[in-house]
Write a structure and sequence with these properties.
seven-stranded mixed β-sheet, alpha/beta, 24% strand
Length: 723
């Protein structure tokens, strides 16, 4: 592979000029950036490269925030549950929270803006029956019902930005002042951010790209009394709430939100919750406001002949890139952290920007770059996992972040990144703008639809969770598979039906989550539309607890489509006779063993027509059932692996009745994949593993040949459409 240059962003720092120049050459970097906690020397800014400068809109301006404490950002929090032993109960509502991060809002009347709830009955306690001791930060309820539980939903001001707090603690920044976040909805703050940006742009003429990190409202991240994460939701809108926002919402939408609409029984409208209409209205309200205000900042940047880049993280709330308003902002670029193939597709699929950029791992922080550790291991895993997705929809740029001086101490890591950057540019130069071959069109069906494209089952960005990995694996497998993926909501299906070009619909998630659907499955229009669609030839794949909502004697509302249902303990008196598995099946043809992750138990077959592919421990974990001209497939869970990626591919083709088309472009070895690009008559066979692999390759015309791939190798070939 020849040495190339460009499309790579290098982090740098003070007193590191010589090494920066060296790594610019070796990694082919054409842009230099600072990071949170670093600055660029003037000599570095004069290098022949684009200069990215990190810019904070609503934090890192403590001079302003200290002068206007009433304009700090706010958030609703809920106290712990408190049991009333007598008719009077005193609640320490800050118990369990980190008081360096928050303080109660006593500027606005708690009697108006707070809410006390009897959690045993769900009733709101009248403000006449409680009072607040502002000195002790306690709330006392009188006329409480003994042995009932009570919570307080209270407003606080944010004293410390969560990301700054995390970086501060991780890097031991000592006496560095805490960044205070402020709210651009407030009059002084709104004026300040625009005036300061204009001044900053004049004072920083060497900056080419303003890297907004990000804009106004941080995703919900609250710390406990030990200074550790208490609640984190990468999609949480909690920090966008304020008295001003609630008053503006009421004026615009015509009704007033309760604190409970925000704290949501202590779940804080987690992305796993089926969203209420009030919460959806609030999201729309915030997104409109943020888009309008961000556009003004972007316009100011453009007036100074600079590019505006948004970091997809930190204060990104309201700038949903797949939402209705993002396209009107005029953003030049989006950059985000790439943890795997799914997070790469979150960024690379974003419409309406000139270019996209991924910040690859590991971050150059001391939690990874320390003596005795090998950061190449994480870097290699990160690149191989993301590369699959890159072959489907490439990013325009890649880069890294953190302290370059730390990475420089690890020569093997420097060598590895040099290889990766060259391989990245080689792939990009071949396939950018070229549509890859796709054999199927697949839709992911959940409560969020397009708004959360590639963003299902994420708690904190790119992290593993026991209750989610069995479903996140579905998205990870799809991110690099030769299928066209879209995201549709239950509401869209009810109002618009199912797009005609969809071959397969996938519904995956635990019962009662937004991703399975919960109460949506009580809607008769939704179930009848889907049943009719499958009956007429569609393919439906349910994973985990698909269509789950206990209603009218069934748990899986599409049990007739799937051919299975789940035993809840109510029908133990009814015998379940069907347990015999198929010796061979198309879906399992490449499986040497099954991994359903956390799996599901007590799923049983309804009729003899259901093909049982895997049955163990008294339950079905993989099956297929005919339904009219279509098919329903049930899978108990699908963690990401090369084997499960193949299992899902086979399940999709089988569900769509297109088994004979699967081997048009195909490899026999599950550790490899083939990606074809008909427009340029090229295809790539990739080894997704760190070991040598041998595989048969089907070349699109029914012919196959055998190839050997070294560890992580990509083999490019030309082909003719005639084979």
């Amino acid at each position: 592979m020849k040495k190339t240059a460009g499309r790579v962003t290098l982090p740098s720092q003070q007193n590191f000029l010589k090494e920066t120049k060296e790594l610019m050459k070796r990694w082919g970097a054409d842009a230099i950036r600072d990071s949170d906690g670093t600055k660029l020397d003037e000599e570095i800014k004069q290098l022949d490269a684009k200069i990215y400068t990190t810019y904070f809109v609503a934090r890192n301006h403590n001079d302003f925030a200290i002068k206007h404490p009433e304009e700090r950002q706010q958030i609703y929090l809920m106290s712990q549950y408190n049991t009333a032993i007598s008719t009077t109960i005193e609640i320490d509502f800050l118990k369990g929270y980190f008081t360096e991060q928050i303080e109660p809002d006593y500027i606005h009347d708690p009697k108006v803006w707070w809410e006390v709830i009897d959690r045993t009955t769900g009733e709101v306690v009248s403000p006449d029956h409680w009072s607040v001791n502002q000195t002790a930060n306690t709330l006392t309820i009188t006329e409480a019902k003994q042995w009932h539980e009570y919570t307080v939903s209270f407003l606080v001001y944010m004293k410390w930005d969560p990301t700054h707090m995390y970086n501060h603690i991780t890097n031991d920044w000592g006496d560095t002042p805490h960044d205070i976040p402020f709210d651009v909805r407030q009059p002084h703050a709104n004026q300040y951010v625009k005036e300061y940006l204009r001044k900053w742009l004049k004072d920083n003429p060497e900056t080419d790209v303003v890297r907004f990190t990000t804009f106004f409202y941080h995703f919900t991240l609250i710390f406990n009394h030990l200074g550790k994460e208490k609640f984190v939701d990468w999609f949480g809108y909690g920090a966008s709430v304020s008295v001003a926002a609630l008053e503006a919402f009421e004026k615009e939408k015509g009704y007033r939100l309760r604190p409970e609409d925000i704290v949501d029984e202590g779940y804080y409208n987690s992305t796993f919750r089926v969203p209420s209409q009030a919460y959806l209205d609030y999201l729309d309200f915030i997104q409109q406001f943020v888009a309008k205000e961000v556009k003004e900042l972007v316009d100011i940047v453009h007036e100074h002949d600079k590019e505006a880049m948004m970091f997809l993280g930190d204060n990104w709330i309201g700038t949903e890139p797949y939402g209705k308003y993002f396209k009107h902002i005029g953003m030049d670029a989006v950059v985000g952290s790439v943890g795997d193939g799914t997070t790469l597709r979150i960024i690379s699929d974003i419409p309406g920007v000139k270019y996209t950029e991924g910040r690859f791992l590991p971050y150059f922080f001391p939690d990874t770059f320390y003596e005795g550790n090998d950061p190449v291991i994480e870097a290699n895993e990160n690149w191989l996992t993301a590369r699959r997705a890159f072959m489907r929809k490439p990013l325009d740029r890649i880069g890294y972040g953190g302290y370059l001086s730390l990475a420089y101490k690890f020569p093997k890591f420097v060598d590895y990144v040099e290889k990766v950057t060259d391989e990245f540019r080689d792939i990009y130069d071949k396939i950018n703008g070229i549509k890859p071959y796709t054999g199927l069109k697949v839709a992911i069906l959940n409560a969020w639809g397009k708004l959360r494209t590639w963003q299902t089952h994420i708690v904190a960005h790119g992290k593993w969770y026991k209750q989610a990995y069995s479903y996140h694996g579905v998205l990870e497998a799809l991110s690099g598979s030769a299928v066209d993926v879209s995201f549709i909501s239950f509401d869209e299906v009810i109002n618009n039906g199912i797009p005609r070009d969809i071959d397969v619909i996938i519904n995956a998630g635990n019962a009662d989550t937004a991703f399975s659907g919960g109460v949506w499955w009580k809607n008769e229009k939704l179930t009848t539309i889907l049943r009719e669609w499958v009956y007429n030839g569609g393919g439906f794949i349910g994973i985990g607890d698909p269509s789950a909502y206990h209603y009218q004697g069934k748990f899986y509302q599409l049990a007739n489509v799937l051919g299975v249902d789940k035993e809840l303990g109510f029908s133990l008196s009814t015998n379940k006779y069907f347990t015999e598995t198929k010796e061979e099946h198309f879906i399992a043809a490449d499986a040497t063993n099954f991994d359903f992750g956390e799996s599901m138990e007590n799923v049983y077959v309804l009729t003899e027509n259901t093909e049982i592919i895997e049955y163990s421990n008294g339950g079905v974990h993989l099956s297929s059932s005919p339904f009219g001209k279509g098919r329903g497939i049930y899978i108990a869970g699908l963690p990401y692996s090369h084997e499960n990626t193949r299992l899902l591919l086979r399940a999709m083709y089988y569900a769509a009745h297109k088994e004979k088309e699967m081997k048009k472009w195909f490899v026999s070895n599950v550790h490899c994949e083939v990606h074809a690009y008909p427009e340029i008559n090229k295809y790539a066979v990739i080894n997704n593993s760190m070991e040598r692999q041998v595989t048969d390759v089907y070349n699109g015309a029914g012919k196959k040949h055998n190839v050997t791939l070294e560890a992580s190798e990509i083999l490019w070939e030309d082909y003719s459409h005639e084979g």
